[in-house]
Design a protein that fits this description.
- With 188 residues, this protein is an alpha/beta fold.
- It has a single domain (4-182), classed as Response regulator (Rossmann fold, 3-Layer(aba) Sandwich).
- Helices cover 45% and strands 21% of the residues.
- The strands form two sheets. Strands 3-2-4-5-6-8-9 form a seven-stranded mixed beta sheet, sandwiched between helices. Strands 1-7 form a two-stranded parallel sheet.
- Helix 6 links the parallel strand 5 and strand 6.
Amino acid sequence: MFFVRLLREPLCGKLLELLKEAVPGVTRVAVLGSLVTPENYWRETAVAAQLLGIRLHPFKVPGPDALDSTFETAANEGADALLLLPVIFFAMNERRIAELALHGKLPAIFWRRSFAEAGGLMAYGPYRPDLWRRTAALVGRILKGTKPADLPVEQAMRFELVINLKTAKALGLTIPPSLLMLADEVIR
């Protein structure tokens, strides 16, 4: 078991905030989670949406086989952007999700930088090299005899924003300069 928590609850709201900043006209966002996505992630995203004046279309996707139909339904319901909550099979299907989002003309954001590298519009999440270092340090303490129950649960402290301008161009979007200045990496 890893003791470094990948995400903190407010990250879901931050993802929505960044999406709104990148696409100021967005009013309806499809939010994709899974059947086991924690309820606090859904609640926190709903609170952020209300503050931002965004209407959410939540989807509890049962598995990767339902991605095509979920994207079709989201488009039919008038979603104009997409937020992916932290789900392992989303991470394992980033390229496919990026392609579906581009095909459906849906600007999308996810918490892993590899999503933007795979063709998604944006990613904002923990800086993974720091997570691996902290995890290794905790594993080292266990190997030296510390009981896992005595270790603290840690949260990520450093986050990175990656924006894919190729995808923005393909979607017909102009990313605001203020957001580009915040980006840790811009894919051109």
